[in-house]
Design a protein that fits this description.
The complex is a heterodimer of chains A (about 110) and B (about 120).
Chain A lengths: L2 E3 L4 E5 L4 E3 L2 E3 L5 E8 L6 E7 L6 E3 L2 E6 L4 E6 L8 E9 L5 E3 L3 E6 L1
Parallel strand pairs in A: 2-12
Antiparallel strand pairs in A: 1-4, 3-9, 5-6, 5-10, 7-8, 8-9, 10-11, 10-12
Chain B lengths: L3 E4 L2 E4 L5 E7 L5 E8 L3 E10 L2 E4 L6 E7 L2 E6 L8 E8 L10 E2 L3 E5 L1
Parallel strand pairs in B: 2-11
Antiparallel strand pairs in B: 1-3, 3-8, 4-5, 4-9, 5-6, 7-8, 9-10, 9-11
Classes of the chains: A mainly beta (about 110), B mainly beta (about 120).
Chain lengths: ~110, ~120
């Protein structure tokens, strides 16, 4: 069965610090997709990134970057020079191609203090 | 933003009453999903639909039923609400599934309280 673990329940940083959110997953499929979503205090779920299991290239989008390592089953998310607006709950999720369903981690609450 | 609306956005009801939540999309996406979000559990799939009148169970389907009579609408029904069903419910849509997995986009959520 697929599983996603976000071991960091809460992280608190000061503005402009870099922060990395960890995500470890388990799956028996060789083809799968990994996602990150952001849930700000307003409550909506915002899609950030989607990565398939055949593409291990790291990705950078502005202050956000993602490090996908199949060897350690990890898909970590780094925010560089964090800002107060980055305060949110961040979810990592896995979707196996053998089933049309997302499995979410429990989320990491990130608080960025001014 | 994907065109997904949920109604109602907030609801308070009493134990034992039936409740129906509605998800409406304007994207003509084939797949629709219902999740619930609870502290310490992230989001968990309740039911999903892969076409009109085609539905399947998720990991927490007990006590819930769904229906999809039109592409744009996906209804979640609690036949007899219990306090354990107090939660935030999210609808999601995607254009594909299986090996053609597409990104799921989420609606704004419905906060349900069962007293």
């Amino acid at each position: 069965a697929q599983k996603v673990t976000q071991a960091q329940t809460e992280i608190s940083v000061v503005e402009k610090e870099d922060v990395t959110l960890d995500c470890v997953y388990e799956t028996r499929d060789t083809t799968y997709y990994l996602f990150w979503y952001k849930q700000p205090p307003s409550g909506e779920l915002v899609f950030l990134i989607r990565r398939n299991s055949f593409d291990e290239q790291n990705e950078i989008s502005g202050r956000y970057s993602w490090n996908f390592q199949k060897s350690t089953s990890s898909f970590n998310f780094t925010i560089t020079a964090s800002q107060v607006v980055d305060s949110a709950v961040y979810f990592c999720a896995l979707e196996e191609t053998s089933g049309s369903r997302l499995t979410f981690g429990e989320g990491t609450q990130l608080t960025v203090n001014p | 933003d994907a065109g997904i609306t949920q109604s109602p956005r907030h609801k308070v009801t009493e134990t034992g009453t039936p409740v129906t939540l509605r998800c409406h999309q304007t994207e003509n996406h084939r797949y629709m999903y219902w999740y619930r979000q609870d502290p310490g559990h992230g989001l968990r799939l309740i039911h999903y639909s892969y076409g009109v009148k085609d539905t399947d169970k998720g990991e927490v389907s007990d006590g819930y039923s769904v229906s999809r009579s039109k592409t744009e609408d996906f209804l979640l029904t609690l036949e007899s609400a219990t306090s354990s069903q107090t939660s935030v419910y999210f609808c999601a849509i995607s254009d594909a599934g299986g090996i053609f997995t597409d990104t799921q986009y989420f609606g704004p959520g419905t906060r349900l309280t069962v007293l």
